Amino acid sequence: MTRKKLVKILATITLLAMGFMMVTACNDSKDEKQSKKDRKKETVEETTDVAISAATVSPETKGANIHHVEIEVEGYGVIALTLDGDTAPITVQNFIDLAESGFYDGLTFHRIIDGFMIQGGDPEGTGFGGSDKNIVGEYAANGYENNISHVRGVISMARNGYDYNSASSQFFIVQTDSQFLDGQYAAFGYVTSGIEIVDQICVDTPVQDNNGSVLPGDQPVIKTIRVID
Fold first, then answer.
1. Residue 107 and residue 83: Cα distance in Å, rounded?
2. 161 phi and psi, to 5 degrees?
């Protein structure tokens, strides 16, 4: 083989290799663009879902994430709580809106289980009532990160057992550590003082069944829920 033919063959091989590299690079670039497009689409869809869910959160709450409230129970005193709007902004805003509207004034704790929790906020006092709207459940089983564990003193939203987005006005305060509820219910704050009132309510209140149902005449009354800040 002459030197001239060898040079020509090498040049051809080089051009073919460069062509292959260019095609591969174009395919990689196309795949990368498609991948980025898919990722962007997924992000937009996820963000849209969150945006729709968070539409009920007012700008005020978005800018001020920690709130303090007081639940005054007739004949017992005041349970003070801190609400975590960073973890559960939808839930906190709903609770504050109801409290500021006077919705909770005069309602009761209708379900009480000593060694577990006290539950209230139902205008019917039966466990089947609520406000005029339901809210999105902010907890892991419903696709929301919520790191508040259901330990003693935590406040969380009640819901029915089959609909993750059925919480409305009913809430419960945990008396005894109940981490088995984590990821299934929207915890949104914790008692800072007055947990002994929860204990006393559990001791004083007669219940009619293992579910902790309290007869109307025996239900402790929520005089008011005040939003401090």
1. 20
2. -75, -10
